[in-house]
Amino acid sequence: MQATGTLAIAAMSVAMILSLRPRWPEARLGGLDKMYRLHKWLGIGALGLAVFHWLWSEAPKWAVGAGLVARPERGPRPEITEPVRAFLMSFRGTAEGLGEWAFYAAVVLLLIALVKLVPYRLFRYTHRVLPVVYLVLVFHTVVLLDYAMWFTPLGPVLALLMLAGSYAALVSVFGAIGRSRRVRGEIAELSQYPGVRSLETVIRLGSGWPGHKAGQFAFVTSNQLEGAHPYTIASAWKPADPKIAFVTKELGDHTAKLAKTLKVGQPVTVEGPYGCFTFDDGAPRQIWIGAGIGITPFLARLKEMAGTAPDAPRPEIDLFHSTREVDDAALERLAADARAAKVRLHVLIDARDGHLGGQRIREAVPGWREASLWFCGPSGFGKALRADFAAQGLDAETRFHQELFELR
User: Fold this and answer.
1) Proportion of the chain in helix, strand, coil states, percent, rounded to 5
2) Burial (CB count within 10 angstroms: exposed 0-12, middle 13-18, buried 19+), residue 207
3) What residues contact residue 181 under an 8 Å CB cut-off, 6+ apart?
4) How much is the pTM?
5) CA 265 – CA 380 distance, rounded (Å)
6) Of 136, 117, 166, 127, nearest in space to 36 by CA
7) Which residues touch 386 (CB under 8 Å, ≥6 apart)?
8) Local structure of residue 294 (DSSP, 8 states)
9) 20-34: per-residue pLDDT in tens?
10) Model confidence pLDDT, tens digit, residues 72-92
11) What span, in angstroms and rounded, lies between the C-alpha atoms of 332 and 96?
12) Residue 366's pLDDT band (boundaries 50, 70, 90)?
């Protein structure tokens, strides 16, 4: 009981801390996408431990009720003379009752988050309840943790985790996550590419934006009820012209409505930048693979490179863009950006050229063994490419870069 409960609340505490999107672990963990992946798996681990903790509590009662075991004889409880311990024990019944209901709520809310039972706009509200549930479970833990454990090395560590987690929970409850990194802006331009069902939104930013690197992303709020959504930045940063661009594809309820709901002059909020998919690895050769809307970070990098000095050191780059849908204007613009950045562009249209695979890339880039690979697109495609190149001897751990960002 003590072990499972302690591990569960510790995992939840770390998950709560990561939900604040803190700067200091982002680079160490490889980006916010990796932080969210860890946040998700901590939630899964906490759920499993909490279920085991609950079963350990309830199973003996079920066994007694079924007549499988006899109810143990308990004598009178010894008198507690320590005032702090006595104070905590006075809340024992309340902590047990609240903890049980908080467990039920946590199971439902975590399943909604993990199984994606509801649309994102509703999920974000249900997920806002989890910090309240966490605070109830902190109370449950403080009261019911074996009192002697507070005086072991575990006690201070657990106390610090719960204090930090409680602070994160309160920040979340009041909607203040990322507040210090938010900047007001106004939509300056909207351009549609109907062939690929995509929309480019250019936002003029107010003061406070720290600048960004190509490959990073930001959270954009255009509708308070819908909340913030993450989008990869599709433009290079120019302090003299403080604009930021995003390219969004109609892939869900929210993005399908953007072309109709967004208007030039509309105020928006941009939070960020986040992410470490920034092409900074020092490799003499790079291979970029942008599948579908995954071309976005490479658009920003092409613009960034086009703005640097012609004699500035840069790797030799091949950009592969694999797409099922075609928009001539979008492809012409991509080709122009690639020429300006001196990047070799390979466009593959599924119906005309077939599917892109590792063998095809290696045939087009004979020096692939000296290259690092940067992939953005469907996660299954990226996983298959990573495995394919690893099987051919590429050190995928250090030279295959892939954005894994998912909000759920």
Assistant:
1) 50, 20, 30
2) exposed
3) 271, 272
4) 0.86
5) 38
6) 127
7) 375, 396, 400, 402
8) G
9) 999 888 888 888 888
10) 777 677 778 789 988 988 999
11) 65
12) very high
